[in-house]
Specification:
Among the domains are: 1-112, Fumarate Reductase Iron-sulfur Protein, Chain B, domain 2, CATH 1.10.1060; 115-267, Rossmann fold. By secondary structure, it is of the alpha/beta class. The protein has helices at residues 7-12, 37-42, 49-60, 68-75, 82-90, 96-109, 115-127, 163-167, 172-184, 201-206, 209-225, 236-245, 258-267, 328-335, 361-364, 366-381, 393-406, 415-421; strands at 148-149, 157-160, 189-191, 230-233, 254-257, 280-283, 302-306, 310-314, 341-342, 387-390, 411-414.
């Protein structure tokens, strides 16, 4: 779709400000009532979905021009989708998240580029990753694992580590544990090693849709050539790309996040968690596994109005309101670990507060990103939890950085880390 296709959304926005908060019936306290990090941090209307609709409408009407402030408004957004969920509850027919993707694409196409993003995209084109690292080192995380290289030896399941887990050494234990757990449970699993490339998702979030298509089509062809049927990933960004974006390009693979595969192994009796892990934790829902983790539903149709008033879609249009994201699976795993106590934050599931690492914000606006993570950590602390647990390397890295900056004592775990602890002596990450 083009930015102009969202003109009706821009004009329909009733300026109710619902997009700024957690839905009213979900608010449990004033302290944790806000939903959108961007408007909460910048405290100016243009940084909300409501404001960005107005900015986009002004641009396509040629009533305003690009400025540094317009760039700031467009790119200082985590694209977490909180506003999208709130709008779907308040209004059925608004798509602020899709509009924001197209608005960013338009700025990139028109040469309105952030230098911080340009450097990352240049490295992506040269080295196939978003971490400013060398492609030749991508498979180092798996050294000594004795796992199949799927380009040389067929396997039933492909494990995709993703850019963050491949290059962030502090997070290597998570993906090493994931592969080891599945392999020991009898899963015929393989990896692509140095041949693995970026999924393209973060380029897509930054507005570089052409780069996304290039990497997505390359991955799809490589998987087909290798006979891949099932893809498992620990990266929430990758999960979102493979389940929601790749199908638009003709991909037809079973895609599971690691937590989904681990729950499958537990239910099949192939994985038993028997060792006590005496810790009180709270779970953070990653945006791309949670509210943006709903399965893709293809749709081709058109919008109509009844009596020129009520908007309807023929055929009925899928409504991605976040309700069918991956929420219970990670909680089921945590609850199955002996000795572990799970306590919930106020904003959870489709109403969860973002970690602050998404949408290119961590790379371009580190202060904003750190503030967003710190807000989430404060919410986690309010539960009395000793640790914040997630299922996304980008979330975990942002929490680790924020905790380090603040000198906090909160621990950070991936669910896979705790599963491993329930199987063998504890090993803490940090």
């Amino acid at each position: 779709m083009a930015l102009e296709d969202f003109r009706p959304d821009m004009e329909r926005c009733s300026q109710c400000s619902y997009c700024k908060f957690v839905p009213l019936d979900q608010i449990k306290s004033r302290r944790f009532s806000k939903g959108c990090p961007s408007i909460a941090y910048n405290n100016f209307n243009a940084y909300s979905a409501r404001g960005r609709f107005a900015v986009a409408l002004s641009l396509i009407n040629k009533e305003s021009e690009y400025t540094e402030k317009v760039q700031d408004i467009v790119f200082k957004c985590c694209l977490c989708g909180s506003c999208d969920v709130a709008d779907k509850i308040c209004r059925y027919n608004l798509e602020p998240l899709q509009m924001m993707h197209e608005l960013r694409t338009r700025l990139v196409e028109d040469g309105q580029l952030l230098p911080q993003h340009m450097a990352i995209i240049d490295n992506l084109r040269k080295e196939d990753n978003m971490m400013m690292e060398k492609k030749a080192n991508r498979g180092d995380w798996a050294e000594g694992l004795d796992v199949k290289l799927i380009t040389k030896e067929p396997a039933e399941v492909l494990f995709h580590a993703g850019c963050r887990y491949s290059y962030d050494k502090a997070l290597w234990p998570t993906v090493r544990n994931a592969v080891t757990i599945m392999k020991n449970a009898g899963v015929n699993i393989g990896i692509m090693g140095n041949d693995e490339s970026c999924c393209g998702a973060r380029a897509y979030y930054m507005g570089y849709h052409g780069e996304f298509v290039k990497f997505a089509e390359n991955a799809i062809e490589m998987w087909k050539a290798a006979g891949v049927k099932t893809v498992v990933t620990s990266c929430a960004d990758g999960y979102h790309a493979f389940t929601r974006l790749y199908p638009r390009l003709g991909a037809h693979f079973e895609v599971l996040h690691t937590v989904q595969y681990i729950e499958r192994l537990i239910n099949q009796g192939k994985l038993k968690l028997t060792k006590t892990v005496p810790i009180r934790v709270t779970y953070h829902d990653p945006c791309h596994l949670g509210r943006q983790g709903e399965p893709y539903i293809p749709w081709e149709g058109k919008e109509k109005k009844i009596f020129n008033q009520v908007v309807v879609y023929e055929p009925r249009k899928p409504r991605y309101n976040g309700a069918w994201g991956v929420y219970e699976t990670p909680r089921n795993i945590l609850k199955s670990i002996p000795g572990l106590e799970l306590v919930e934050m106020e904003r959870i599931k489709e109403y969860a507060w973002c970690c602050g690492a998404g949408g290119g914000v961590k790379e371009a606006y580190p202060d904003f990103s750190n503030w967003t993570a710190t807000e989430r950590i404060e919410e986690a602390k309010s539960t009395g939890a000793e640790a914040i647990v997630s299922a996304c390397g980008w979330c975990e890295r942002n929490f680790l950085d924020a905790i380090s900056t603040a000198g906090d004592k909160m621990q950070v775990f991936d669910i896979v880390d705790l599963v491993k602890q329930a199987m063998q002596p504890a090993r803490r990450k940090g």
